Every structure is written in structure tokens, then in C-alpha cells.
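Format notes (please read before filing issues)

Several people have asked whether sequences and C-alpha cells are stored in separate files. They are not. Every record keeps both together, in the order shown below: the sequence lines, then the C-alpha cell lines. Line labels are part of the format and must not be stripped during preprocessing.
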Amino acid sequence: MKSLYKDEDAAAFVSRFKDAGEDVALRVYTSQLIGRDPDLVMHGGGNTSVKGHFTNILGESVPAIFVKGSGWNLDSIEPPGLPGLDLKYLKKLRELDALGDEEMVNQLRTHLFDTSSPNPSVETLLHAFLPHKFVDHSHADAILSITNRPDGEALVKEVFGERVGIVKYVMPGFELAKVCADVFEANPKVDGLVLLKHGLFSFGDTAKESYERHIELVSLAEQWLENEVRGNGRKLTPQFDAPAEPAMFAAQVAPALRGLLAEATGDPDSPYKRLVLEWRATPEILNFVNSAEFEKLALTGPLTPDHVIRTKALPLVISEPDFGDIGDQLSEGITAYRRKYNEYFDRMVADKRVERTRLDDFPRIVLIPGVGLLAWGDSKKAARIAADIYEHTIRVKTLVHATGEYQALPEGDLFDVEYWPLEQAKLGKAKPKPLHGQVAVVTGAAGAIGSAVAESLIQAGAHVVLSDVNAEALTETCNDLGARYGKDSRRGVVCDVTDEHSVQALFAEVARLYGGVDIIVPNAGIALSRPVEELSADDWKRVLDVNLNGYFLVMREGAKLLREQGTGGHMIVIGSKNVMAPGAEFAAYSASKAGVHQLAKVTAMELAKEGVRVNVLAPDAVFGNDRHPSGLWDEVGPDRAKAHGIDFKQLEEHYRNRNLLRTRVTGKHVGNAVVFFATNQTPTTGSTLPIDGGIAGAFPR
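Then the structure lines:
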């Protein structure tokens, strides 16, 4: 590992954050250097600090410590992510014999200089009790590859000699802070502290010194591991005869798993809490899950105890998958996992004599030979974080296997972190959005209606797969939504709804991307304005291929996926006002939409027993906007204007004036209606909801 510190970059940070002061600016710079290296920290892991002074409202210069705050990641931290605290007071806390976690947090918050600051790291006192100006902490893979062994302490002495102090595992908090200070004071010449089964602290008088000591110590561990692997390293033994296409089996396995991992709520209007997927099958992952040592290594604990919050202590392992009958294996595996998890919980609360709120008993990591790593979370971001953590877990365990024997912490220590009162206090505080954890598919998503529907679903908390045949427009729409709502809120998949294989590939990709689907919005359509006698058979067929056959294929393949999950869901079909009130010279479009309405009603009857609701929306004349114009109206608008005997520029106004409310119908209105049905606001299926401002001729009758 090489130092990435550059004087010119450091100077740029000092200039950029001059209002925060040079020390904090340099603290931000080296914190980002550490945070951007996934071999050191991931997703909020690790913390850093700098000691200095704060000028209070009286103009007094007060000793201060600025330490990483909750909600900030080191890779993108800025000065507001380093809340300042009264250092002189914090140091006095070391005189106490004990300090509970809740009171420790209270003491930290009441001694912030700015009460609007984020909560300081739970390791703030550890940073405060060390005398150095700059302190850096990481969970470096190389360090964990040495400490997570039965002989970890002896190996640390072998690798680092007297350069580090060794701290036996203690749970983060007041006690760990005191132990670390004691270990340092026993040998104040050390450059850092190695916390067994936890990570590495380094320190120095300057940001550069502390950072480069950190890099140097990690490099020593890397070099030792490299030499051991080169000398007598053991490789994993290939055992499982893996299929050639893990992607195909991932699409097969994911929906069944997602259904099994859905937690029933007992609420008929919100029957399940759902998880979403991050699937990975890199060569490193496949080498691990396809090996003879796979099950033994996988069923050992995590690299650090805080990983249990994201991954739970153990994964679900399907060691000998039978892809011809894997559904039963998955069901049995989930049932056994849940039973063992509940036994673990009951055993721990009894042994420790504590009261805790039981967390859900579903695995977050599922490992299957031939398929890879399936990580689950209540959001795509949470699933990605779990997958990132477990990829590193695989890397470290593989490396330890090559050079020794892996050993994790006992389950009691893991339980203490998984059921940490500080984490338990967060339960139930954040109210999720109504479609949180759900997955939607919208076809024709680059157009005026489709893009607005996708945005409405994202705003309601859903993850949305946008699909369109126009790759360029789809990319632009996805980029726009990603910039406003985050990259995990959506994915784009090019699909031609008239091609059976393309639609099948769409839903297979949806399964791989998110694990399954809950809301399907068939919307892709085209239009053609011609008198019947001028309508060619090819034109008639072209419209029906997209507007009717395309809907059929999307609904058929979507129904298969919904049935595989077994957790209900929605099909919300974009129909048309033209079914009730057709217009002249619009035969192909009107007939295709009439067919769609009937298709939806039949599908509603067939899927009701599966808990799937099928409803139709009948909008009128959605023109779109500059950002998402309506391709349909661009194509047929001039002919429709001609049919109505008006100029094309008057067309939108014509449609607005003909409805009773004299209102413009927008894609947002359609999106609102989709969310209305998708959130189970009414127990309805087989219905048609007009979105037209009131067209008397289209009143249901």
C-alpha cells in the first residue's frame, strides 16, 4: 500500500476549507485518502480526529477535539462532518470507573460546541484520551487477516515488533477508550495500536505523519501475508461443478428467495416488509462458493463485530444446490436459519440477563455454489453495503485460509453489538415511505407518461426499473432521475416489448438487479392516425404488436415473477380514454387499447387468488414537457389536429378545453394514480380509473 499524500493536494484542501482552519482542512484531506481506499474502510467504517482550539462566543480559545460524526463517510467528509467538542472536559471523564453507553452519548452531545452537529463517533473518548494531535482509525483487511486467528496476538508481535501496542478485544465505548490509553501509556513510543479483531489506530503530530504511519503499518501486514502466501499458501479446493451461466441461475433463485425473505405484517393493506437484492458473482466470489472449504469458512463469524449490523453474524449457506428443485432447498434453508437465529437470540438474552427487542430473523447474506453472493437489505443501498462487506469477508477469509486458520469473536460479543442499546434506540424512529422496499417495472419509461410514473414511484420509496426500446432516451431519463434521487433509486434496461425473448430478458434482469418485482406498469405504446380505409394491414399490425401484444407479453412474464415470489403485488395498466370515447381516424390505437382493457380485466380475475391486483388507468392526451416530450403526440399530433380541424399549435389547448374541469392532464397525474393503487389505498381490482379532467362521453356506462 502506497501513500497518496501530495503536498499540492493538501494545499488545495487548506485553501478550499480555509474558514475551518488549516488543521481541520488537513484532517479532511487525509480522512478522504483513507476513506477512498476500500481495503482500509467501507461505508462509514473507521474514524479520524484532530485536536486544536475553538474560539467561543466570549472570544476564549478552548481546547477542542474535532472527530468524525455520525452520518458522514470518510471518503466524502467535509468540515461539518467533524463536530467539535470540549477536549478538556472529555479528558476528565477518564477518571470515572464506569460510564454507560447512553450516558456517554449524553456527555458527548452536551459538550459539543454546536448542538446542531451530528453525533460524534462512539470512539470519540478513545481519540480524546490519546495525546496525539491527529489520530486515524481503520478496519484494514490486512490487519484483520492477521488478528482474526487463534494466534493473532503472537502474529501481531511478529509482524510489527515494538511499533504497535496490542489491545485485546473490548467493545467500543468508554471501557475501550480507557484500555487503549493504558496500553499506549505503557509504551508511549509506539506508532499505533492494533485492536484484535477490530482494526488499527495510528497517530502523529501532523496529518501527514499519522496517515503515512497508518499506510506503513498496513503495508507491513500486507508484506507479511504476501510472503506467507508465496512460501506455503494453501489455495481453495475446487469442488462444485459450477454451471456455465450463474446469471441464469441467479434469475431463477432470486425471486423465490425474495418471497421467502418477505416478513408478513398482518396488515392487509401493507401485507409484507420486503427486501431487495444485490447479486454478485465475481471470479473471487465464485472460487469461494464453489470450493470444498466454502461451508466451513462461511459459517464462521464476521471480520469485525460491527459487520453484524449489516450482514448478521452468519450467512445462509446452500452447500449442494439442486437447481432442478432448488425452491424446496431454499425454503428449508430459510426455515432452519430462522429457527437457529431465534435460538441464538433466546440463548443470549437468557445468558446475559438482558431485555432486547428481537430483530427480524432473516439472513442478509445467502451464498450458493454456482450462483455466488446474494445480499439483501431493505433498500438497494443497504444490500450493496452488505455485499461490499461480505466481498471483503470472502477476501480476508480466503487469505487467512491460505496462511493459517480463521477465528472470529464468540457469539456473545457479536450479540452485544447486534443488540447494542445504541442501535436498538434507533428502531422505529424513521418512518419509511409507503413503497419502501418495493420494486417497480415501467415500460415505455423514457416518454412523457412513463418517466413521470417512474418519478412518482421513486418519490413514494420504490426502486424502479425503467425500460424502453430507445436506449439513448432511456439513458438520459435514468441519468436525470439518478441525479435527483440517487443512483440506487433506479436502473434502466433496454427492451423491445414486441419481442418475446426481450421481455423475458427484461424480467430476468429485474430479478438479478433487485430480486423480483412488486409493481408492474405496462405503458410502452405507439399511435397512428389514419382513416380505416387508408389503414394498411402492416400499420394495423404494427400498432397492435406494441400496444396489445407488447402489453400481453409484459403482463404474462410479470405474472410469472409475481407468482414465483408469492407476496402479491400490482399490475397498473396504462390504458386510454379512447376505449370509452374513441376518436375518428384512430382505429388501430383505440382497438389496441380496448383489447388491453379486456386483457387487464381477465388478468385481474386470474391473479386475484395470488393477491395481485390489476387495475387500468385511462388518461387523455398527456403531452409531456421539454424534458420528457411525448413521442406519441410528436408522431400523431399533426394528424389529430387535422382530424379536429385545428392548427397543431392549438391541439393541447383543444384537449384541455374539452374536459369538464378545463384542466391539463399531465404525466404527474398518471403517476399519482399509479401510486394510489400501488399503496393499496382502496381494496380494488379490475377497475378503470379515468384521468381526463372529466370527459362526459367517456363516463363509465
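For reference, the curators noted about this record: The mean pLDDT is 93. The domain at 246-424 is CATH 3.40.225 (L-fuculose-1-phosphate Aldolase).
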